[in-house]
Write a structure and sequence with these properties.
By secondary structure, this protein is α/β, with parallel strands linked by helices. The chain contains twelve helices and twelve strands. A seven-stranded parallel sheet has the order 8-7-6-9-10-11-12, sandwiched between helices. The chain has a five-stranded parallel sheet with strand order 2-1-3-4-5, sandwiched between helices. Helix 1 runs parallel beside helix 12 and helix 5 packs across helix 6. The structure holds 3-phosphoglyceric acid.
Length: 306
Amino acid sequence: MKILIATEKAFAPVAVRLIREVTEEAGHQLHLLENYKSPHELLDAVADADAMIVRSDLITPEVVDAARKLKIVVRAGAGYDNINIQACSAKNIVVMNTPGQNSNAVAELAFEMMLYHARSGFLGKSGTELRGKRLGLHAFGNVGKYMAEIGHGFGMDIFAFDLFLSEDVKKRSGIKFCGSAEELYGNCQYVSLHIPANEQTKCSIGYDLLKLLPPGAVLVNTARKEVISEDGLLKVFAERNDISYLSDGEPGCKAVFEEKYKGRFIFTARKMGAQTEEANINAGVAAAHQIVDFFKTGNEKFRVNK
Ligand code: 3PG
């Protein structure tokens, strides 16, 4: 089978080498399309691929149409909002993700931004500490668990709001749970987002929640920019000069922040939460094994379009 790695944001070379080992040892051919600049390059590359490993690459209906032999696409990562599931399902293409494999990297980036911000960008100005602060996790999945572990190390008091967790998981988590998003946002100096981007969550974090944040609060977004209502965010920033926004990736309203809110935001130039060698190896190699296993045994354990 021809397996294509199509990554507009390339994996670390060591991850590609290990993916190659896994796939070629199983008798498949590995092809590489990295750092491509135009969707046309992807359309050409998928034409004869039987399987594909992607990251945040946009798998549009056009890509699915062009991929005439495609049987499986694995998103080496957690969020699969970049993949048109309907188009894949219509052509009976299996879609999988690799949950948990890059979560530590994302959690570390959230803390890196929090620390850098708390110390005023390392410019010599007096800052603040994380110890004793309340960290609110909006969703307690794989990234949330690493956030709690790291937060405990810093002496933070950890809270979460998650609609989908059983009471049993909550009890064993070692953190406190809020009964509503309002309670979480109203109580925590740091609120960190770990919800997926889907029809229910897009634009769901807006003015009504953000206005509840306590004085000096920091909103940390290593999830997706789409879950924020940027109108609501800008309205809160216009009304209050005490809150900050740290985001992995640039929001649409970046220019307004640059003009008006210096020192109250950090935006990474490119989405880079999962951009570590370790995360690339974990997610990439997991994806390779899932493809090899799918072709060998039909294993669909991580299928998301059942
Ligand atoms: C994910 O959903 O796994 C993360 O957002 C990582 O995305 P990336 O692989 O495009 O860096």
